[in-house]
Amino acid sequence: MTKLLRCLWSLGLFGVAWAVLALDPLDLRPLPAPWPQVLRPLPAYLLVSFGCFSLAVVGFRLGTFNDCEAAAQELQDQIREAKQDLARRGLRL
Amino acid sequence: MASSPSKTVRPRSALQPPVSRKPRLFRGQCVCVRGSAFVAIMAASRVKYSVLLPTYNERQNLPLIVWLLVRSFEQSGYEFEIIIIDDGSPDGTQEIAEQLIKIYGSDKILLRPRAKKLGLGTAYIHGMKHATGNFIIIMDADLSHHPKFIPEFIRIQKEGNFDIVSGTRYKGNGGVHGWDLKRKLISRGANFLTQVLLQPGASDLTGSFRLYRKEVLQKLMEKCVSKGYVFQMEMIVRARQLGYSIGEVPISFVDRVYGESKLGGNEIVSFLKGLLTLFATT
Ligand SMILES: Nc1nc2c(ncn2[C@@H]2O[C@H](COP(=O)(O)OP(=O)(O)O)[C@@H](O)[C@H]2O)c(=O)[nH]1
Ligand SMILES: [Mg+2]
């Protein structure tokens, strides 16, 4: 099963469960009084939470993205060393 | 996967075989192994690493990367060869490669050129045909990938007996140099999206600094069809499907000093297309 199908399956299952419990279109009354009302905005809550989570993760990782100044400096020094050594060995650029 | 019993038969290293425990394996027998199918272990065979360097207009970078590679391998003592796959660069990259062969020897530096620019994916396939090592290291020739990490790749590979070791900019001491905030944001965002959609079990899917067992790379090359960054992503996703194990080494990616990037066009659009294609088909 592809990742897309798996994702649609999970969403579908969740959607059906939510609809039966929160909207009760078949009038089965599976849950007592306050619960259907409480569950109704659940998908919206989850969506917003996931959005916030994503923004937080990306923001945090953006802020802590290593700049590698030392590596760049080291490379510059090594480039100089390499050029000298290669010229000594007879490389013509 | 790494802990499957069939894999423990493989020696950690042909350099330091655990002689006392399984000496039988070192007399030229073949051991069947799930995943990579078939590994022949010869007596006294040394592990060799083949570095594939695809180049297009890398006249300035090529001698420097080769110098760094040779020095790194000489320090670590591993056997190696460097295979340069040049796609008829108009800037004379091949002429530089010829000079490097004279300096370092034709057993260490191999030039396997192609007539015209045919793209990175096929460059790896072309280079692999000429590789004699048991492991293949793929890296860019533009000095973004530093050879100093290769001994670390090798150490991790041995430690976990991995099929693939991937460099990662997104973990531990890994990072990038020379990127502005916008490029970092796109990179982080794209990486997050990839992790959510593909759950690949590796932190850097678009990087191209990796070590592969040769037979694993061959198998993956047969399966992968994408181009550009998506190709690198597909390699990891297919590797997971085929049950290969993947280790990671944090690397510092230093943006190229000389020359310019060839992966142009609309990178973001083609990345998203590729990502969604992999999401829908794997
Ligand atoms: N042989 C070959 N090498 C290529 C081609 N395109 C890019 N390269 C090389 O692949 C490496 C990565 O390319 P680069 O332009 O730096 O991509 P970027 O780092 O993603 O911007 C460099 O060593 C290039 O010289 C190609 O069509 N053929
Ligand atoms: Mg580059």
Can you offer a commentary on this structure?
Chain A: This is Dolichol-phosphate mannosyltransferase subunit 3. The complex is a heterodimer of chains A (93) and B (282). By secondary structure, chain A is an all-alpha fold. Helix content of chain A is 74%, strand content 0%. Chain A folds into two domains: 1-33; 41-93, no CATH class. Chain A contains four helices and no strands. The radius of gyration of chain A is 29 Å and the shape is rod-shaped. Chain B is an alpha/beta fold and 282 residues long. Chain B has a single domain (40-281), classed as Alpha-Beta Complex (Spore Coat Polysaccharide Biosynthesis Protein SpsA, Chain A). Helix content of chain B is 38%, strand content 18%. Chain B has eight helices and eleven strands. Chain B has helices at residues 61-76, 93-104, 120-129, 150-160, 181-198, 214-223, 228-241, 267-281, and strands spanning 30-33, 37-40, 48-55, 79-86, 109-111, 135-138, 164-168, 175-177, 210-213, 246-250, 252-254. Residues 1-33 and 35-44 of chain B have low confidence and may be disordered. Chains A and B meet through helix 1, helix 3 and helix 4 of A and helix 1, helix 2, strand 8, helix 5 and strand 11 of B. Bound molecules: guanosine-5'-diphosphate (GDP) and magnesium ion.
Summarize the structure.
With 93 residues, chain A is an all-alpha fold. Helix content of chain A is 74%, strand content 0%.
Number of strands of chain A: 0
The run of helices and strands of chain B is EEEHEHEHEHEEHEHHEEH
Q: What overall geometry of chain B do the principal axes of the alpha carbons give?
A: globular
Helix/strand order of chain A? HHHH
Subunit structure (chain B): Component of the dolichol-phosphate mannose (DPM) synthase complex.
Protein name (chain B): Dolichol-phosphate mannosyltransferase subunit 1
Pathway (chain B): Protein modification; protein glycosylation
InterPro entries (chain B): DPM1-like, Glyco_trans_2-like, Nucleotide-diphossugar_trans
